[in-house]
What does this fold into?
Amino acid sequence: MFILLHVSWACWLGSIVFFSFVVAPTVHAVLERPDAARLMRTMFPRYYLFGMICGGIALACAIATANDLKLTVPLVVATVLSAYARQVLTPALDEARRDSDDDRFASLHVQSVRLNLVALVSLLLAGLGLAIV
It folds into this structure.
């Protein structure tokens, strides 16, 4: 179970880094804005679902093996943020885009970027917990 914990954490962390620093910038650099937006709207729910799945697996393993708050708290934070982003924030962004509400979209996009950053930092902190366990 300890290996599953490490693998789920590593896959999740890798997905955030790869998506944020490789996929998203590349999509926006290569595609025209409407096409990039359509592609990203399709990818984001899957991206956040992947985080929720990895988070659920990592949390279950962490609780079963360590029950250390240095590990579980950051995993809970990142998992909750992924769920919020998928279930609340992404639909709100889609609605703002559909309604051509550029101000609301910009505000929600900033929130999305910040939440993604907090999830990334949380996973890095969980990594410190993994190193201690």
